[in-house]
């Protein structure tokens, strides 16, 4: 019976009355212009509005892009962010400075140590303290490991988006070694809270140098392996070369930083241009591209991994001996063994863990070169133990502006490559 | 062009002969590092008394506000910990907990320790609120469970048995007091001479904290 009905409807071009009623009812409920995709009759054919994301595997998180399309061509991109908004900047205001280090790794969860480093640098500026050299060197080594860690995830997902599955698996294999080092030094694989105001939470454990050396021994050959899979691969080149290109002027005008800017040929890297910590003591180079397309951003990041390895190699040779944390027990808690023996230490310990440390009133901005660009923390203190305001300059958020100029006018398939090459972390975009 | 593709294929082909890097998890468990922060445990003294003195410092340090402590007084008839106070209620909301380890760092008596167990899933939210009974480790062999009777000496300077860098390892510096002993003459003299006057060097300036 049902078959005959269907056939008759197909021949006669008519719908059954019940279904017609139902359709009319649905149309009344949902006005036509709110249905997606919407077609608009233009002069040169139909325009379609397509919602890409928030649950799309190639948007690297919960990013939603509203695409205005004509066929396969993207005419206009409107990013819609906020799906991962956690209110983390506001949460900083309810926690003490020392507790804030538990929040920072959660902003950009692919480079957790860098966020804490930046926050701590701003707090140290307000406190007018300098961490001991040993802490600075360990921070640099771990910071560069974090850069490699983040770039490995970028390469893995970038290749996966374009269809290279093996690279994804190989990158995560190597990332595991870096996460092991995180676990070794801090006890957590991602949410480390290892950097503290005035130094580090604990000294580096025995076996740390050897574990880092193992990475230095293995990784260069593995990076060559990724390159053997991708760099001269005709499919990869076809998908990335001259895709999502942007000029240096445009990138600078949109305040892009990080590999997205360096791929256009601007050698702007905070480690060189505004040196912080002990980066001046290291010998390394800033790779730059020339055309500013997806392929250049790929090459820049691959070279950055090699340069990071160079920094780490220099770093582990010269980690100075000495304290890993400043000796001021008004800011850094005294060592645990001291509080068993000294009443002063016990009082400092209780004061610090109940009231925290007071930070002089004022404001400070600290910026570091995170794997994505300039990561900045702007901290305002009112003199109490809790920050008055914390603002994060997330490079992912600002670099996301480039997505329009990069891929408007291109194909929707190229947009996937462009998003991956910008490497946004939505935790940092939405905060 | 074909050569480049064959080169890529060669790289993937090489991996057929390599040992897999994955482990089959529920059967094989990955060892964790010493500093790993997993499920909390409340430790005991060698004589079976609880280490926790109910000072709530862990609760104050917790950025996630996950720890709830209600202290109570010990007496010589019903004794849970050496010294005056113990934690009558000690609860950790494991859904709120972010495993930052601040409670362990804050604990002045090394009572709460984040150990290496990471299998803490559950089917209900209620079961994720860990009570004191769940967190407290069983008494060491031969030791009596709490509550105990009788007078316990005031808390001494005892190293925790753990090897965590944050925890005390071996004898405290100076090596004067190494084991858990009842307050003998030597200890008492040492405490009188060195520790009774908390601010003997005037190092602590309370104005700094106001």
Q: Brief description of this entry?
A:
Chain A is an alpha+beta fold and 431 residues long. Chain A has 19 helices and nine strands.
SSE string of chain B, helices as H and strands as E: HEHEEHEEHH
Percent range of helical residues of chain A: 40-55%
Total of helices of chain B: 5
Q: Architecture of one domain in chain B, CATH level 2? A: 2-Layer Sandwich
What does this structure look like?
The complex is a heterodimer of chains A (431) and B (210). Chain A is of the alpha+beta class. Chain A has 19 helices and 9 strands. In chain A, helix 8 (208-230) packs antiparallel against helix 13. Chain A is globular. Mean pLDDT of chain A is 86; it is low at 31-38. Chain B has a domain at 33-166: 2-Layer Sandwich (Alpha-Beta Plaits). The N and C termini of chain B lie far apart (72 Å). Mean pLDDT of chain B is 75; it is low at 157-184 and 195-200.
């Amino acid at each position: 019976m049902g078959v005959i009905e269907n056939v008759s409807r197909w021949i006669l071009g008519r719908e059954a009355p019940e279904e017609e009623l139902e359709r009319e009812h649905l149309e009344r409920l949902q006005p036509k212009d709110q249905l997606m995709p919407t077609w608009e009759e233009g002069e040169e054919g139909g325009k379609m509005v397509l919602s890409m994301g928030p649950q799309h595997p190639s948007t690297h998180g919960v990013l939603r892009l509203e695409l205005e399309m004509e066929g396969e061509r993207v005419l206009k991109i409107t990013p819609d962010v906020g799906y991962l908004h956690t209110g983390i900047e506001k949460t900083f205001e309810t926690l003490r400075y020392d507790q804030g280090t538990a929040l920072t790794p959660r902003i950009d969860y692919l480079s957790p140590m860098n966020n804490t480093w930046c926050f701590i640098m701003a707090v140290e500026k307000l406190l007018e303290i300098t961490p001991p050299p040993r802490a600075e060197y360990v921070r640099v080594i771990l910071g560069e490991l974090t850069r490699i860690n983040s770039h490995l995830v970028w390469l893995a997902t970038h290749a996966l988006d374009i269809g290279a599955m093996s690279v994804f698996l190989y990158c995560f294999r190597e990332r595991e070694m870096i996460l092991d080092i995180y676990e070794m030094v801090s006890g957590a694989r991602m949410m480390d809270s290892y950097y503290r105001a005035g130094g580090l939470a604990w000294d580096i454990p025995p076996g740390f140098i050897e574990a880092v050396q193992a990475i230095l021994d293995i990784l260069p050959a593995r990076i060559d392996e990724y390159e053997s899979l991708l760099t001269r691969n005709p499919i990869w080149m076809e998908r990335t070369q001259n895709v999502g290109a942007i000029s240096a002027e445009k990138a600078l005008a949109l305040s892009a930083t990080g590999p997205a800017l360096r791929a256009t040929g601007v050698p702007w890297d905070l480690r060189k241009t505004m040196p912080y910590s002990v980066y001046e003591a290291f010998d390394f180079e800033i790779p730059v591209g020339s055309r500013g397309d997806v392929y250049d951003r790929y090459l820049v990041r691959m070279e950055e991994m090699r340069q990071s390895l160079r920094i780490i190699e220099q770093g582990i040779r010269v980690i100075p001996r000495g304290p890993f944390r400043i000796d001021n027990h008004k800011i850094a808690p005294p060592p645990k063994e001291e509080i068993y023996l000294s009443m002063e230490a016990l009082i400092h310990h209780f004061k610090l863990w109940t009231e925290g440390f007071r930070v002089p009133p004022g404001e400070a901005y600290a910026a570091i070169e995170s794997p994505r660009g300039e990561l900045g923390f702007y901290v305002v203190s009112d003199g109490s133990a809790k920050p008055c305001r914390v603002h994060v300059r997330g490079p992912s958020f600002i670099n996301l502006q480039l997505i329009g100029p990069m891929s408007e006018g291109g194909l929707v398939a190229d947009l996937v490559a462009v998003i991956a090459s910008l490497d946004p972390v939505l935790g940092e975009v939405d905060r | 062009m074909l050569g480049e593709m064959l080169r890529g294929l060669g790289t993937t082909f090489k991996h057929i002969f390599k040992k897999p890097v994955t482990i089959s998890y529920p059967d094989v468990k990955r060892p964790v590092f010493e500093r790993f922060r997993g499920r909390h445990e409340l430790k005991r003294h060698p004589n079976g008394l609880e280490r926790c003195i109910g000072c709530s410092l862990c609760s104050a340090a917790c950025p996630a506000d996950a720890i709830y402590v209600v202290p109570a007084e010990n007496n010589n008839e019903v004794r849970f910990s050496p010294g005056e106070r113990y934690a009558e209620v000690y609860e950790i909301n494991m859904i709120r907990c972010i495993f930052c380890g601040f409670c362990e760092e804050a604990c002045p008596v090394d009572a709460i320790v984040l150990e290496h167990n990471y299998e803490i899933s559950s089917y209900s939210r209620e079961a994720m609120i860990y009570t004191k009974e769940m967190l407290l480790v069983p008494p060491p062999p031969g030791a009596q469970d709490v509550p105990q009777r009788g007078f316990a000496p005031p808390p001494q300077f005892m190293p925790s048995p753990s090897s965590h860098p944050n925890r005390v390892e071996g004898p405290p510096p100076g090596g004067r007091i190494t084991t858990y002993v009842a307050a003998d003459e030597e200890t008492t003299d040492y405490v009188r001479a060195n520790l009774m006057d908390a601010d003997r060097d005037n190092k602590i300036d309370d104005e700094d904290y106001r």
